[in-house]
Amino acid sequence: MLGTGYLGATHAACMAELGHDVLGVDVDASKVGALSEGKVPFHEPGLPAVLRRNVEAGRLRFTTSYEEAAEFGEVHFIAVGTPQRKGEFAADLKYVNSVVDSLVPHLRGDTVILGKSTVPVGTTDLLRARARGLTGHTVEFAWNPEFLREGHAVVDTLEPDRLVLGVEEGGRAEEVARQVYAPMLARDTPFFVTDTATAELVKVSANAFLATKISFINAVAEVCEAAGADVVALADAIGVDSRIGRRFLGAGVGFGGGCLPKDIRAFMARSGELGAGHMHGLLREVDAINMGRRTRMVDVARDACGTLLGAKVAVLGCAFKPDSDDVRDSPALNIAGQIQLQGAAVSVYDPEAMDNSRRLFPTLDYATTALEACEGADAVLVLTEWRQFRELAPAAVGAVARGRTLIDGRNCMPRGEWEAAGWTYRT
Ligand code: UGA
Description:
The strands form four sheets. The chain has a six-stranded parallel beta sheet. A three-stranded parallel beta sheet has the order 3-4-5, with helices on both faces. The chain has helices spanning 6-17, 29-36, 47-56, 66-72, 94-103, 123-132, 153-158, 173-180, 182-186, 196-227, 231-239, 260-273, 277-305, 331-341, 354-360, 370-374, 387-390, 394-400, 415-420; strands at 22-25, 60-63, 75-78, 111-115, 139-143, 163-166, 191-194, 312-316, 345-349, 365-366, 379-382, 405-408, 424-426. The longest helix is centred in the middle third of the chain and has 32 residues, at 196-227. By secondary structure, the chain is an alpha/beta fold. The protein has two domains: 6-189, NAD(P)-binding Rossmann-like Domain (Rossmann fold), CATH 3.40.50.720; 208-426, Rossmann fold (3-Layer(aba) Sandwich), CATH 3.40.50.720. It binds uridine-5'-diphosphate-glucuronic acid. The site of uridine-5'-diphosphate-glucuronic acid (UGA) has 22 residues, from helix 10 and helix 12. Uridine-5'-diphosphate-glucuronic acid binds at residues 118, 146-150, 207, 210, 214, 248-250, 252, 254-257, 259-260, 263, 320-321.
């Protein structure tokens, strides 16, 4: 497993759980050190137990040596990141390229490499050509995208909705993948074998669709707000239609994280390059709607406080979603930062993401509990729908806050209870 970040560490542990012998490779020695001791360097429910179990059983090891990896692997998975390029929308393929450059010269025979990273369509062909210049052996590339969600990574990996594999004609990749994923295929997990361009596009299209669904409901929310309608009741009513579906119709401060935002931008850039103008235009709008939600939330907070200058604002939630400590492109943290820049004192609390938030935004005031964050607050903002925030007692918050405005950025709070306790509820 080449790369042991979120995707690679999870996939490595889960492949060992299936009974395979796995070697995880990373250039980051501290990550390799932690994982070798059975420690997961991020918050993912259930993963520490799977990792520890397989490290202890001797099925799972980690190294920084590509030479060792080349010797060890019958099949290699690429699981490194493909971040947004600085100052551009396109994906940066430097880590994927560097894996190929580091591994391929050490290969001692014909090899199958399965790519899992999210890449722009056409990448598999580029990597194949790149590898050809580095070795005399045949290196077969296939693309095997990953659909796991943070917070559900183990179950999504071990019990996926589907497996997708993009292959070259006449190669061995399908046979190899069938062996690797045998337990899942035995359970009749749908397995789509396609050409490599289709497989690459399946992944980005899935994320683009989810992002579009969220931005759609957020655009409807804007209309609801102007017309005095209730977007949550509306989502419930349209969501029962199975053609529409209720999931990902959660209106609020929008999507963030290490995947959806950068993936739709990379897809936008690649569509533009390919002359597919409609996808480019659609995703531009999806992105603009999403980013607009953050500004709108700052406006609502300003309106509630009269002015942000000198106000005290409590922000509950920093992670981009609950059950995660990930703050990459987090709407919550971004909003907290914008409110502070406009002159408010912002006190934030998150059950898991405090350390990561502090690193990114050291100037915010970090409380040790949700109630401490609310002390003296003119307005309380809920920006990540952690269960413990939904269960907060309005009277307890009222005892420490100065104002009585609850701003629900995720449409997750029990509105009736808060209003009954004398709070003004805004969303
Ligand atoms: C997403 C996809 O759901 C995975 O299938 C995919 O494998 C992954 O990206 C990836 O490409 O690696 P993830 O980033 O873990 O997974 O997060 P999601 O659960 O999709 O949530 C993304 C964002 O959308 C969060 O900020 C969440 O709060 C927001 N969201 C979600 C909404 O604003 N409204 C909703 O109704 C649902």
